[in-house]
Amino acid sequence: MTLTAPLSCLLALMVIGLAHGIRDSLGPQDLDPRPLELKEVFKLFQVQFNRSYSNPAGSEHSRRLDIFAHNLAKAQQLQEEDLGTAEFGMTSLSDLTEEEFGKIFGHQKAVGEVPRMGRKVGSEQQGETLPRTCDWRNKAGIISRIKNQENCKCCWAMAAADNIEALWGIRGRIRACSPTLSPFASELLDCNRCGDGCQGGFVWDAFITVLNNSGLASEKDYPFKASVKTHRCLANKYRKVAWIQDFIMLEDNEHKIAQYLATHGPITVTINMKLLQHYKKGVIKAKPTTCDPQLVNHSVLLVGFGAETVSSQSHLRPHRSTPYWILKNSWGAHWGEEGYFRLHRGSNSCGITKYPFTARVDQPVRKLPVSCPP
């Protein structure tokens, strides 16, 4: 059930007003009954995001109300601390604790063994001029629709499948908008080398699985099942619609990552997702103390970059430009900026340079030029 536009605006205004007061009032000695405004906002939240708990007097309802209130206060704190243009507030995830959020949407906390491979960017990148903007969404048949991992910890598999699909689309072999041809992540969950299904993994696990299975089947043949249950591997049953020659890890240098993105296509990155629980829109620019770049736990697809001009409130200060990355998430199109989000570019926001991986779908000796749309 969705809210009408006027009701959505009313809800936003109520949330903003409440967040300031909640930050100052919540604490161990917080007393009931809750303020009427908070209870009303929580009711509207349940309607907008189709939430239901036990009866209004039940313990689960009361616990979720507590969590919701603290999350509104946290979002307001993030809003005040952010150095970019991001807007934080009430989202579909506002009734989850930080621990629940991590367990549902992240991948394994322990990174495990990263493949022993050097970081590299092809020698053809030397001397390349970096375009001002790049957005692979603007070229038809490259970026597929936003997907929803639901309660399955498969961000790593979806990011890897999207990476392979985009690279094949760039080379004109398949179209990302065709469900009969698009490779999908389900096969990676059932057949990955760790056999963990929805229990988590990393993008290099996905790429190694694709190499071991000689490719990926289509979404039509191997549909997604958001279940924690590990299903029987059917990799040999269906025709492969995409495959890879190998995969590489790029240098931990944002300029070179941008060069590779613009001249080869979308890549996968793994970031600290802590701030995404409260993210609504805009460019996130966080301090390392707010979003630790070493604690990465969520894989997404990097699809472009650009810069946003921010007007100054004072005539004494010039307009400033905020460079950003464009990233495709896997939490549904209702989240963030229609399923996407933006991170500040140039400050290693939330650890974006730690594990930049991409498949290669051509033999290394072949160098087909590609051009990213602005």
UniProtKB/TrEMBL annotation:
Residues 1-21 form the signal peptide. InterPro entries: Papain-like_cys_pep_sf, Pept_asp_AS, Pept_his_AS, Peptidase_C1A, Peptidase_C1A_C, Peptidase_C1A_papain-like, Prot_inhib_I29. GO terms for biological process: proteolysis. GO terms for molecular function: cysteine-type peptidase activity. GO terms for cellular component: endoplasmic reticulum. It is found in: Endoplasmic reticulum. Coiled coil: none annotated. Pfam families: Inhibitor_I29, Peptidase_C1. Residues 42-101 form the Cathepsin propeptide inhibitor domain. Its main location: endoplasmic reticulum. PROSITE patterns: THIOL_PROTEASE_ASN (PS00640), THIOL_PROTEASE_HIS (PS00639). Keywords: Disulfide bond, Endoplasmic reticulum, Glycoprotein, Hydrolase, Protease, Signal, Thiol protease, Zymogen. Gene3D superfamilies: Cysteine proteinases. Residues 130-360 form the Peptidase C1A papain C-terminal domain. Belongs to the peptidase C1 family. May have a specific function in the mechanism or regulation of T-cell cytolytic activity. This is Cathepsin W.
